[in-house]
Amino acid sequence: MPRELSSPPFLKNKKGEKMDTKVVILQNGFTRNQSHTASALSTARTKMTANELKAFYQCSTLIQKDDDKFAEYVISIKDFVETLGFSDTNSNYVKELCRHLAKQTFEIEKDGIWDIYTIFSRFRFDTKKQLITIKFNDDMKPYLLELKNNFTQIKQVKYIKEFESKYAIRIYALLKDYRLMGHRDINIEALSKMLQLPKSYRNYNFIRLRVLEPALKEINEKSDLEIYSIEPIEKQGKKIIAIRISFGNQSDKVANDCIQMLRQKLKRNNDNLADTFIGYIYSISENPTKGDIYTIGNIEADERGYYTCKDTNNDTLYAIMGKKKFTEKMLLNIYIAIKYKIESEKNIFAELPDWQNQQDRIKEFKDRFAQILEAYDKRNDYFKNNS
Predict the structure, then answer these.
(1) Can you say whether residue 185 is alpha, beta or left, with left for phi > 0 and alpha for psi between -120 and 50 degrees?
(2) Residue 88 in 3-state DSSP?
(3) Buried b (16+ CB within 10 A) or exposed e, 355-383
(4) Chain-centre distance of CA 24, in angstroms?
(5) What is the chain's Cα-based Rg?
(6) Closest C-alpha among 331, 326, 303 to residue 316
């Protein structure tokens, strides 16, 4: 676990007074996988490269839900490089990466106002001790701390680390922002600006061939998302100005991630089964239907070593002698339940595009009807005033 220190010797103001900044020593490197960032960052403009984006999202996993201030994080260069999967372990390369990250910004537009935020306020590169110190800029607090609503949740940043393209990383975050919807509508001009594409490249054919298709191929092959379709949804003449990307979760990958997380949780809980498994869904069948899925309510063990899993109504779901066999059976049946749930959601999402298209047509009809009524009212007013 990370070791925390308060007011270390090198954190002093110009008067030599100690500053109220928490320092976290990452003795085991990056150990957290989940990233939470404000949705505004998913659509913000940035010139970060693929490796810089990987570093940003990995660093964002260090922030805990109850943090109200940014800490300083100290990590070895070796752990920094290995966790991010960089092939170049040269100290000069890592130093250069940190130098570039220190200058990187997010540009966020709201109500016609552009705000530009420097992402990090500090990088300290200790060549002798082979350590890096990292701190986020305080101006980033609204976008990284105490997020209650409108945030992008990436449960496994390991997928981001697999991507080679910065476009794949940005589009993956865009889709994760709409993870409960199953599709995202994207304006081509807004996407071009977000990805900082040259103006000469801002046409749909170029973006589809050089940006979207390669990025979505990477997302399909290397992440927990599955892309179902890309389709134009809005045109001006022959020009495509908006598209819809329909997607869902890849059930095997998500279920496997959950099982790995549970194994780690079990280890942290000193093999306490109840603290680890209660609240998770469980399948009583290898080929489940809706009626085979239950929520784990309790786990009991007697003096003989006979373990029983019960649901929230205290009905027995499974029982067996021996803790090891019981644990493996629990993990297997939780895996089956999670996979079934995701596959069921896919069936719902598969119907969403048709439903959405119907809603779009209804809205279009209402808008046209409103225009007709408005024109009719204007004509009546004209005749009244000129009669």
Answers:
(1) beta
(2) coil
(3) ebeeeeeeeeeeeeeeeeeeeeeeeeeee
(4) 23
(5) 26
(6) 326
Q: How far apart are CA 355 and CA 13, in angstroms?
A: 59
Distance (Å, rounded) from C-alpha 363 to C-alpha 353? 15
The DSSP symbol for 195 reads: T
The pLDDT tens digits for 274-327 are: 999 999 999 999 889 889 999 999 999 999 999 999 999 999 999 999 999 999
Q: Are 136 and 59 in contact (CB under 8 A)?
A: yes
Scanning the structure block, which residue is given the tokens 């101006």?
139
pLDDT in tens, 78-107: 899 888 887 666 778 888 999 999 999 999
Q: Do residues 129 and 74 lie in contact, with contact meaning Cβ atoms separated by under 8 Å?
A: no
Closest CA to 219 of 274, 150, 164: 164
Domains, the chain, with CATH or none: 1-157 (1.10.10.10), 163-249 (1.10.10.10), 269-341 (no CATH)
Q: Do 134 and 73 meet the contact criterion of CB atoms below 8 Å apart?
A: yes
Q: Contact at 8 Å (CB) between 108 and 114?
A: yes
